[in-house]
Amino acid sequence: MIEFHLDGRSGVAPYMQLIQQVRQALRLGLLVEGDRLPTVKDVVAKVAINPNTVFKAYRELEYQGLVSARPGVGTFVTRTLTDQSLAAHESLREELRTWLDKARAAGLDDESIDALIATTVRTPIEEST
């Protein structure tokens, strides 16, 4: 089951952070069809968030066709976003862990690592001529 976390410094609304975390878990195969999301009560207790914020996130995920609420039972994943081999994900994750170890050994903190990754992802790859 997914465990949510919130970053108050991100500038992203809390309900959007929940949506992004579910979408990431679906894309990486960490959540699959039939999995149950944590109850609103559980999310509220773990991340100290307003229940309406969780309801809003879950409603948006339902609107996107990714989950379905079953009254009295819970909210369940109805569709996944993964389109690639999970084995490929694990190999890449291991390479990323190695890279992160090198980055930390070079003295980069988490905020610097995030900034480096974000700017690198947004920089177009120049084609060799």
UniProtKB/TrEMBL annotation:
Pfam families: GntR
Alphabetized GO MF terms: DNA binding; DNA-binding transcription factor activity
The keyword Ribonucleoprotein belongs to this UniProt entry's keyword annotation: no
Source organism, top-level taxon: Bacteria
Cross-referenced SUPFAM superfamilies: Winged helix' DNA-binding domain (SSF46785)
Entry-linked PROSITE patterns: HTH_GNTR
UniProt cross-references to InterPro entries, sorted A to Z: Tscrpt_reg_HTH_GntR, WH-like_DNA-bd_sf, WH_DNA-bd_sf
SMART domains per record: HTH_GNTR
Keywords: DNA-binding, Transcription, Transcription regulation
Residue ranges of domain HTH gntR-type in the record: 12-80
Protein name, entry field: GntR family transcriptional regulator
Organism: Phytohabitans rumicis
Taxonomic lineage: Bacteria, Bacillati, Actinomycetota, Actinomycetes, Micromonosporales
